[in-house]
Write a structure and sequence with these properties.
By secondary structure, this protein is α+β, with helices and mostly antiparallel strands. Among the domains are: 216 residues, no CATH class; 79 residues, Muramoyl-pentapeptide Carboxypeptidase, domain 1 (Orthogonal Bundle); 62 residues. The protein has an eight-stranded mixed barrel with strand order 4-5-6-15-13-12-7-16. Strands 8-11-9-10 form a four-stranded antiparallel sheet. A two-stranded antiparallel sheet has the order 1-2. The protein is 36% helix and 14% strand.
Length: 572
């Protein structure tokens, strides 16, 4: 269930890693007589906001949190005792080294530098110089804050990559969390989940990521050669043994299935395995070895690792609190589903989303507040200008033939017949607008589900159900068409006993437009995940239809370049 797990995140004292690096300058530290020589160095380093030996030297975006963390402890070292690293320090270093298991980059937390730092401390022991101890300690604190922040909030501002989710509402009090929960922990790995997203889907993706990291380390099978023409079941594919090896590698063909020596006949268990692979990758499950299937089979394991990492990152952007479990639409999967862990029937159906070119469905959250049966469609001016006016020019009766009418901006009908020159001029200027009358031919179908938002996006039925049979379903202008509108209406209105399935069907096929306000708003979460893991552990991958994975890859690379730049260049 999508419920909050980490209540201590209410107050934040530092900016998340993706916010502006330079904040207000910290006051210069002045060592008091009570501060030890090590503490004095820690004060100086914290005030400076930079540590040259860090992989990312500038930590000015965490400076206030570092100052608060050490000030609360009297400026004493937090990660060493008598010059020796504590169990918590060693545990955190292990977490840094294993950051790939969380979809993170170990180098961001100095993974390759800790061995030398530990060696220097251990060689000196209690005789280690105050500066050596202080620099080790501050490096530990900065890397730990970066690590926990990245796990909790993510590494990139979602708004910068067209994900309109409010990550700022879940900031983490890093100074308090480190001091209260981590510096005394014998095993930090056992408690780090407290700062991670609490979703079961996130946890399943972590498990799948560990498996795909192993596959990537073992190396990919040789690339499958594309056939000259699509190979249908019963046909011949010369690289059949190679295909079988690839399908076994990803778990779609049982390991104990063997092929006749030298066989090239594409049939039986290997066809079933290809169909399973196709289903897991959002392809038509026809068992045909075509270009799309071969291309998906040839995707390197390192790319699958990357996609699972992006899924983890995007779950970190999602809100922690919903008043109740949301309706979820995953755009590249073309699926709507409700959450399984709630006192309501589980619902899943196909959807049609916005076209990849110019009409992409946005990623955001909303609150469904009402349902409209037999809706009018208020045609946006952009569609009127680009699509309807050219058709009207060719056929002045186009609107009448397709159940449209022309209205003034005040809502008065001007005409539902042939379009005159004056009306056409009004449509071109935008002083008049077009609406489509309710009915079976209406572009919104017979019901729409409204969660008011600035993008004018909602869920609705459609008069073109044949589109749901396609494997790739980005055909709309941005709104989301649902395959089973009656089932969704029954689910949404389940708290209103008078709205039986029979009544819903009768109202959809009636002669009146009816709005039904929901007694409690229902959250709607529109997400974009190109990798997802089912409750049974099955891993599914989908095409990056909008290029959001590519944008996230670029944003992470830009973050790394900014972090590596000198402080004078990185600061705004």
């Amino acid at each position: 269930m999508l419920v909050a797990m980490f209540a201590a995140a209410a107050l934040a004292v530092c900016a998340p890693a993706w916010q502006a690096r330079a904040q207000t300058a910290a006051p210069a530290a002045v060592a008091s007589p009570a501060v030890t020589p090590v503490g004095a160095v820690i004060q100086s380093l914290a005030a400076a906001g930079t540590l040259p030996e860090l992989h990312w030297p500038d930590f000015s975006d965490y400076r206030s949190a570092v100052v608060e963390f050490y000030s609360a402890g009297g400026w004493t070292p937090a990660w060493t005792t008598d010059g020796a690293p504590t169990a918590a320090a060693l545990g955190m270093i292990d977490l840094f080294r294993q950051a790939r298991l969380k979809g993170l980059n170990p180098g961001d937390y100095d993974s390759g530098l800790w061995a030398a730092r530990l060696a220097r401390l251990r060689s000196e022991g209690a005789r280690a110089a105050p500066a050596e101890i202080a620099r080790f300690d501050v490096a530990m604190t900065v890397c730990a804050m970066r690590y926990l922040s990245d796990l909790h909030l993510g590494r990139v501002n979602p708004n910068d990559v067209k994900f309109f989710l409010d990550a700022g509402s879940k900031k983490l009090d890093l100074a308090q969390t480190l001091r209260a929960d981590f510096i005394g922990a014998a095993d930090p790995a056992a408690i780090v989940t407290q700062v991670e997203p609490p979703y079961a889907e996130y946890q399943r993706a972590e498990v799948a990521l560990a498996h795909y990291l192993e596959l990537a380390r073992d190396g990919d099978e040789p690339v499958l050669p594309p056939p000259a023409a699509s190979v249908h079941p019963g046909g011949s594919y010369p690289a059949l043994a190679q295909l079988a090896a690839r399908l076994k590698l990803v778990g779609d063909l049982p390991a104990d299935v063997s092929l006749p020596a030298g066989s090239a006949r594409y049939q039986g268990a290997i066809v079933d395995a290809v169909r399973r692979f196709q289903r897991r990758h959002g392809l038509a499950t026809d068992g045909v070895l075509g270009k799309a299937t071969i291309a998906a089979l040839n995707v390197p394991m390192r790319v699958r690792v990357e996609e699972l990492g992006y899924t983890l990152e995007r779950y970190r952007w999602m809100p922690l609190n919903f008043p109740e479990p949301p309706i979820v639409v995953n755009i590249p999967e073309f699926i709507l589903r409700t959450m399984r862990r709630q006192p309501a029937p589980f619902l899943e159906m196909r959807v049609v989303v916005g076209k990849a070119y110019r009409h992409q469905t946005p990623v955001f959250t909303g609150m469904m507040r009402y349902v409209i049966f037999r809706p009018w469609w208020n045609v946006p001016y952009s569609i009127t200008r680009a699509e309807l006016i050219p058709k009207i020019v060719k056929n002045r009766n186009y609107l009448a033939a397709n159940n449209f009418a022309v209205f003034t901006s005040g809502g008065k009908m001007v005409s539902d017949g042939a379009v005159s020159d004056d009306i056409l001029a009004g449509l071109r200027s935008g002083t008049l607008n077009i609406r489509q009358k309710p009915g079976p031919k209406n572009a919104l179908g017979l019901v729409k589900f409204m969660f008011p938002n600035s993008y004018n996006v909602y869920l609705h039925s459609t008069p073109a159900p044949e589109l749901f049979e396609k494997s790739r379903r980005d055909f709309s202008h941005g709104c989301i068409r649902v395959q089973n509108p009656v089932g969704l209406a029954a689910w949404v209105l389940r708290g209103m006993p008078e709205w039986t399935t029979d009544r819903i069907v009768q109202t959809m096929n009636g002669d009146k437009t009816i709005q039904v306000n929901l007694p409690r708003p229902i959250p709607v979460l529109i997400i974009y995940l190109t990798a997802e893991v089912e409750p049974d552990g099955e891993v599914r991958f989908f095409d990056d239809i909008y290029g959001h994975d590519a944008e996230l890859r670029q944003a992470l690379a830009a973050r790394r370049r900014l972090a590596m730049a000198p402080a004078s260049e990185a600061s705004p």
